[in-house]
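Can't paste images in this forum, so I'm doing it all in text. The chain is below; anyone willing to post the predicted structure tokens underneath?
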Amino acid sequence: VQLQASGGGLVQTGGSLRLSCAASEPTFSSYSVGWFRQAPGKEREFAACISWSGNVYYEDSVKGRFTISRDNAKNTVYLQMDSLKPEDTAVYYCAASSRGVGSYSGSYAGTYDYWGQGTQVTVSS
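Text version of the structure:
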């Protein structure tokens, strides 16, 4: 499965961006997808995930601001990011797993078998 992340950019505090994760796999609807992010000098961390069944989970710091969704007809998962803060600045990666995910497994990078190349999000203060 090849994943292509896009939609990053430079935005001011309080602004919005929508990231996309497009997959080459025609059965992408049966995959669980997560978004992770890595800020400079920090470890990669979980942001959000959506299971193949549509269950969604978020890291606490993004709850109420980020929304993950999927369009199975387009083999694409989205991450709508609103009310962005400077601390959201990071490279954002999407990842996919053929397994279902829960609130714990979905936040664990090792759950995912396939990773996209990352897209840079920069939030200016």
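The mean pLDDT is 96. The two ends are 37 Å apart (CA to CA).
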